[in-house]
């Protein structure tokens, strides 16, 4: 699911047990989208969610994460091992200097909730089963983490060290340059069905980084190929790797993209070229939302000041949550349902992500 900025995945693993991967905010209710979705279909997140996974710390993946972890009291919390290092915890404190959020408050709240409830954070490292279920009359389930590699872990911590103020230097806000470092790619295997969740993993030339390291780990574990993939990093060209398609996925693969809806519209992923490239490789391709190019109308400064002084927040009524729901019975085919602005990409055509 994704409203155009942000994304989250909820996975039903049978027996009314669920996994939540990342979090985003539903634009109208201003609450975490995965919680709203589960509540809407009659699922109690407090008892039904068994694992919450934060793939990385970038704002479009963790907004509302703190409330998700706090609500899902019986769920384990998992994240990259680098999140648990003192360097990262100090770094989060420095990001919050001057009340600049950038998603840091959500991470902080998540860790506080885990600590308060006595839960233990499960470190996502290559080749680790973050969740495993073998129960009578239930499908077997394993959620494998395939990254980040040791080198990505070390680079992440090194970047944090680079942006932190030195001794004697005035306090300032710490801003990382590459928030996708240490991204957790996972493979969910339910009986004979596998789903690849690509997070924001990107392609690097080093053999021990990026998709090269993920593909190597998948081969070591001799894991199944996936028939469904959450496309990495919003479908951007920098996340493309032929080996992902050739070695990790089945020939007929369903694919889903959550777009990135901020910044210059021309450079936002996925572009039309990105969609054409991915659609040529996938048997079906779905996108949770279209890029929005509309700007809020100019407002009189006096009105703006009055709203601010009255602590009144405004929101766009045109935004809505896009949802791609894919269901699969044992031995059956994926059955898609699209909600809100979500749409299927057809071939051949220029897709045009702009609103029609």
Description:
This protein has 356 residues and is of the alpha/beta class. It has one domain: Metallo-beta-lactamase, Chain A (4-Layer Sandwich). Helices cover 28% and strands 22% of the residues. It is built from 11 helices and 17 strands. The longest helix is centred in the first third of the chain and has 14 residues. It is globular and about 60 Å long. It starts with 8 loop residues before the first strand and ends in a 12-residue tail after the last strand.
Describe this protein with a few key phrases:
356 residues, alpha/beta, Metallo-beta-lactamase, Chain A, 11 helices, 17 strands, 28% helix
Question: Can you lay out the helices and strands and say which pair or pack?
Answer:
Elements: E1 9-12, E2 18-21, E3 25-26, E4 31-32, H1 33-40, H2 45-48, E5 49-54, H3 59-62, H4 65-71, E6 76-80, H5 86-95, H6 104-117, E7 121-124, E8 128-133, E9 141-145, H7 150-163, E10 186-190, E11 193-197, H8 210-221, E12 226-230, H9 242-248, E13 249-257, H10 272-281, E14 284-287, H11 301-309, E15 323-327, E16 335-339, E17 343-344
Parallel strand pairs: 2-5, 5-6, 6-7, 11-12, 12-13, 13-14
Antiparallel strand pairs: 1-2, 3-4, 8-9, 9-10, 10-11, 14-17, 15-16
Helix pairs in contact: 4-6, 5-6, 8-9
């Amino acid at each position: 699911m994704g409203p155009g900025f942000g994304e989250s995945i909820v996975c039903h693993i049978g027996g009314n047990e669920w996994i939540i991967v990342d979090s985003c905010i539903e634009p109208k209710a201003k609450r975490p989208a995965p919680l709203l979705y589960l509540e809407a279909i009659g699922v109690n997140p407090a008892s039904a969610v068994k694992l919450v996974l934060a793939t990385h710390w970038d704002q479009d993946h963790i907004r509302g994460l703190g409330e998700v972890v706090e609500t899902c009291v019986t769920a384990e919390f998992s994240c990259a091992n680098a999140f648990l290092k003192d360097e990262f915890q100090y770094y989060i404190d420095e990001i919050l200097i001057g009340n600049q959020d950038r998603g840091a408050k959500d991470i902080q709240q998540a860790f506080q909730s885990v600590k308060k409830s006595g839960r233990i954070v499960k470190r996502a490292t290559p080749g680790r089963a973050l969740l495993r279920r073998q129960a009578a009359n239930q499908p077997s389930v394993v959620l494998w983490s395939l990254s980040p590699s040791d080198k990505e872990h070390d680079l992440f911590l090194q970047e944090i060290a680079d942006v932190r103020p030195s001794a004697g230097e005035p306090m300032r806000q710490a801003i990382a340059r590459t928030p996708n470092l240490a991204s957790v790619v996972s493979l969910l295997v339910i009986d004979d069905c596998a789903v690849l969740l690509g997070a924001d993993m990107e392609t690097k030339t080093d053999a021990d980084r990026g998709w090269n390291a993920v593909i190597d780990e998948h081969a070591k574990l001799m894991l199944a190929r996936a028939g469904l993939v959450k496309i990495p990093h919003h479908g951007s060209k920098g996340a493309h790797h032929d080996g992902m398609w050739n070695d990790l996925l089945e020939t007929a693969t369903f694919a889903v993209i959550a777009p990135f809806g901020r910044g210059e519209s021309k450079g936002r992923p996925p572009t039309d070229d990105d969609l054409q490239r991915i659609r040529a490789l996938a048997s079906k391709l779905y996108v949770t939302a279209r890029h929005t190019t509309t700007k809020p109308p100019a407002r009189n400064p006096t009105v703006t000041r009055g709203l601010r002084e009255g602590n009144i927040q405004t929101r766009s009524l045109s935004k809505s949550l896009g949802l791609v729901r894919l269901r699969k019975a044992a031995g059956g085919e994926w059955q898609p349902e699209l909600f809100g602005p979500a749409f299927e990409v057809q071939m051949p055509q220029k897709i045009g992500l702009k609103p029609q």
